[in-house]
Write a structure and sequence with these properties.
By secondary structure, the chain is α/β, with parallel strands linked by helices. It has eleven helices and twelve strands. A hairpin with a 4-residue loop joins strand 1 and strand 2. Helix 2 (15-27) crosses helix 3 (30-37) and helix 3 packs across helix 4. It is rod-shaped, with a radius of gyration of 35 Å.
């Protein structure tokens, strides 16, 4: 008998032949096997012969007084029992498996991503899939895009200055920036100010506050206000820019909707311009070539659905 190629055997084998062979090996008789299987004896004999032809080895040595499995027959029987034992456990195993989504999600965000939409997506994801876990890393927008492009992050949320053709973009929300000062600043508490009152004032800002970067509208406003050319402090972190403003290092830009509570608490003071503040769009970045686990897919699809179903007007945060 010619031996079949291993990869061919797996796909060409009639698994019913294995089932018949297991019964033959257990009852040690073609006749008794036919009775157990409710088949005619010639059908069982034919099944054994076809299996032997398929594996290319004799499986049973038998005559009028003897019925024994060959060494190959014993090996095939043992392996077949394991296969059918595994299959027999499937109903029990499937009953023990729920539809719970597990896995880890790596989200990269810019520090000033403050959005009820994003918060809602996280809340709904955790409520629906409590066994999944999340890591949110904060970085400069350029680093966020890099992590998404390199597939180190499940997705990213950040400002965008130049689009990467390898990534997909969806606007999450639009925020507006204003200038603020802290309680120690000379302009704190003053009303009726104009942009001219800010001329020559020292300032702090974000690292992306440049004409050629993501905060270009803020940089243009800084130029229009003629703030001091010497920026006292910079950071990629909103929290640290806020800290420097509150500490009195200088005037600085913050998203209006983020600074609202500090203004109400007296920690920050809003400065001009009060009309037509610069607008900045925040985007969801996705790498379509990244293979995602179930948790990543669930959170991303949930966030995308919220974005799609929320009108743009409700995603514009005027402060």
């Amino acid at each position: 008998m010619a031996l079949p190629r291993p990869e061919r055997l797996v796909w060409d084998l009639d698994w019913n032949l294995l089932r018949t062979f297991v019964v033959i090996a257990e009852v040690k008789s073609i006749t008794r096997a036919a009775e157990r299987l409710n088949l005619k004896q010639p059908s069982v004999s034919n099944a054994l012969r076809r299996l032997e032809d398929r594996v290319g080895r004799r499986l049973v040595e038998r005559d009028a007084t003897r019925f024994e499995l060959t060494e190959v027959g014993r090996l095939l029987y043992e392996q077949s029992v394991e296969v059918f034992g595994t299959i027999s456990q499937l109903p029990l195993l499937m009953r023990g498996i729920s539809d719970d989504v597990t896995g880890h999600v790596m989200i990269a965000t810019a520090s000033h991503v403050v959005s009820p939409l994003f918060d809602q997506a996280l809340s709904e994801f955790h409520r629906n899939y409590p066994r999944a876990s999340i890591t949110i890393s904060v970085a400069a927008s350029t680093e966020v895009a890099k992590q998404v492009r390199e597939r180190r992050a499940s997705f990213g949320i950040c400002l965008v200055s130049q689009r990467d053709p390898a990534l997909e973009y969806a606007m999450v929300y639009r925020e507006f920036f204003g200038f603020f000062c802290g309680p120690q600043h000379r302009l704190y508490g003053q009303t009726g100010l104009t942009l001219a009152d800010l001329r020559g004032e020292p300032s702090v800002s974000f690292q992306t506050d440049h004409i050629s970067d993501a905060l270009r509208p803020v940089a243009l406003l800084r130029s229009e206000a003629r703030l001091s050319a010497d920026v006292v402090g910079v950071s990629s972190s909103l929290e640290e820019v806020r800290r420097m403003i509150v500490a009195g290092l200088g005037i600085g830009p913050l998203p209006l909707h983020v600074a609202r509570r500090d203004v109400a608490d007296g920690t920050l003071w809003r400065l001009p311009p009060y009309d037509a503040p610069p607008a900045i769009d925040i985007f969801l970045l996705v790498n379509p070539d990244k293979a995602m686990n179930r948790a990543e897919k669930a959170l991303l699809s949930g966030l995308q659905a919220l974005i799609a179903e929320t009108p743009l007007g409700d995603r514009v945060y005027n402060g």
